[in-house]
Amino acid sequence: MINVNKPRVQATYYYQLSILDCCIFAAMFQIGQYQELEILRDRPPGLFLGDEDGNEVLLPNKYVPETFQIGDMIRVFLYLDSEERLVATTLTPYITLHEFAVLKVKDVGRSGAYLDWGLEKDLFVPFAEQLSQMRPGRSYLVYMYEDPASGRLLASEKTRKFLDNSVLTVEAGQEVDVIVAESSDLGVNVIVNGRHSGLVYHDEIYTGLKTGERLKGYVKKVREDNKLDISLQKAGYAHVEPNAIKILDLLSAAKGYLPYHDGSDPDDIRRVFGMSKKTFKKAVGSLYKQKLIEIGPDGIRKL
Question: CA-CA distance, 105 to 134, in Å (whole number)?
Fold first, then answer.
């Protein structure tokens, strides 16, 4: 067991690779992703790590764990540093290759914006990949990809072009993971399972949604052109239970009584309960059948 609390030489040199070599190594090593690599040897600039194919990469001193043994396996993230050299880090980035995330702009330069993604070198967004000019301090939903020409990791705000509905991997009724994207005339566009585009219609949105918010959704309908209608609630009576619990919680907070019933205004129902009047009536009916509430002409009461 090696204890690196002993002084380590902070070397000013680095193993030298040309940009072409870096691109080749990046392709071998799955740049932009986590990888389990073996600790091969300890040298002044840090630990040299390797995979089963004989490829090697440096883990600089500042990321070396306090204790280690030659031959140990270590989980690292691989990317190109500020000098375009392949490097490993034990830091945790906010986004990995082929993923979506909301990131904050640190600075804007002549060629594009620089995002904070949790690593020393900022993540670059070319102007051509921005929907509108990004501003420092603001956060944006982006997708991270590898530039095939340079091997660099880049981000794009034009997330829709990285989605594909030509061949669907989901079907009607299936539960899916959704990421809230941008608003449209019909509703809110969402990213489905990180690979497809979908739409939640305005009249099925009962709470505020934030760009980049991650939610569970359900495929309501698959259209002939493979467009996906997404609901944030299960279809039919399958979603009554969680809404019924929500009504009970609101009743408890209101000391057991709420002045809402079948004849209440739909906008009041949506504002107070965060659901449509149809959903409210189903949930209230379920609670009534279970003898958890009573329904009167002036509202509902918890039993």
Answer: 7
Distance CA 17, CA 47 (A): 17
Please say whether the beta carbons of 104 and 174 come within 8 A.
no
Distance CA 258, CA 249 (A): 11
**Distance in angstroms (rounded) separating the CA atoms of residues 164 and 135:** 29
The Cα–Cα gap between 191 and 280 comes to 28
Beta-carbon contacts of residue 84 (< 8 Å; ≥ 6 apart):
19, 22, 150, 152
Of 147, 141, 153, 137, which Cα lies nearest the Cα of 100? 141
Report the number of secondary-structure helices (H) and strands (E) in the chain: 4, 20
State whether residue 36 is helix, strand or coil: strand
Helix axes 240-253, 277-289, angle to 10 degrees: 80
The residues that bridge with 36 in the sheet, in sequence order, are 75
Q: How far is CA 175 from CA 101, 181, 230, 281, in A?
A: 21, 18, 10, 24
Bin 132: left if φ > 0, else alpha if -120 < ψ < 50, else beta: beta
Question: Which DSSP state fits 135?
Answer: -
Spatial neighbors of 128 by CB under 8 A, at least 6 apart, are: none
- pLDDT tens-digit readout, 223-274: 989 999 999 887 765 566 788 888 988 999 999 999 998 889 999 999 999 9
Residue range 76-111, pLDDT digits in tens: 999 998 888 899 999 999 999 999 999 999 999 999
Domains delineated in the chain: 2-89 (2.40.50.330), 100-160 (2.40.50.140), 163-232 (2.40.50.140), 237-302 (1.10.10.10)
The predicted model scores a pTM of 0.76
Give strand pairing partners of 153.
146
The per-residue pLDDT for range 162-216, each reduced to its tens digit, is 999 999 999 999 999 999 999 999 999 999 999 999 999 998 887 788 999 999 9
